[in-house]
Design a protein that fits this description.
157 residues; transmembrane helix; 2 domains; mainly alpha; membrane; transmembrane; elongated
Length: 157
C-alpha cells in the first residue's frame, strides 16, 4: 500500500491503473471468501479508503477460451519421446558420428525438447546473444545452444 506510506516514500503522484492489483484481489476473494467474508470486505474497504482500484474484488477471472485438446497433448508428448528414443538408438548404433551427424543429432534433440515442453503450462522466456524466444521455441533454443561439445567439434575440424 504505497499511498499509505506516502510520507516515507514520497510518491504523491502515484496513481495505479484501474486494473492494478486485480489478480491479487481475485486470489484473496477466492481463497478467503469461504474462511472469512468480513476480512475480504475489510480489505476492500481499505483499498477504497486509499482510493486504490477494487476491480479484482468486483470481477471474476475469465476462463481460458481455448483449452488445449487432449490429442494435442498426447501427440506432442509422443513426438518428443519418440525423437529422444530415436536419438538414443542412433547414438548406440553410430559410436563415432561425423560432424554433420552430430549437427543433425543436436537439431533433433533440440526439437524433441521443444515438443516435450510445448504442453508445459507457464511462460518460459529465453534470451541469448543470437535470439530471443518464449515457450517451446525457447526450449528449442536451450537445446540448440547448450551443447558445447558441438562447438568444440566444429572448431577442431
Amino acid at each position: 500500500m504505497l499511498k499509505s506510506h506516502n510520507d516515507l516514500v514520497s510518491y504523491s503522484n502515484f496513481t495505479p491503473s484501474g486494473h492494478a492489483f486485480a489478480n491479487m484481489q481475485r486470489i484473496v476473494q477466492r481463497d478467503l471468501h469461504n474462511v472469512s467474508k468480513t476480512k475480504v470486505e475489510e480489505l476492500r474497504t481499505e483499498f477504497e479508503a486509499l482510493n486504490l482500484p477494487t476491480f479484482g474484488f468486483e470481477t471474476k477471472a475469465m476462463k481460458d477460451k481455448h483449452p488445449v485438446p487432449k490429442w494435442q497433448i498426447i501427440l506432442s508428448t509422443a513426438i518428443g519421446l519418440f525423437l529422444i528414443l530415436l536419438m538414443v538408438i542412433i547414438a548406440i548404433a553410430i559410436p563415432n558420428p561425423t560432424t554433420f551427424q552430430m549437427f543433425v543429432f543436436q537439431g533433433c534433440s533440440a526439437i524433441s525438447l521443444g515438443a516435450l515442453g510445448a504442453m508445459i503450462p507457464g511462460m518460459l522466456h529465453v534470451e541469448s546473444p543470437y535470439a530471443r524466444a518464449t515457450g517451446a521455441i525457447g526450449l528449442v533454443l536451450i537445446g540448440w545452444f547448450s551443447t558445447p561439445s558441438m562447438v568444440d567439434l566444429l572448431i577442431a575440424n
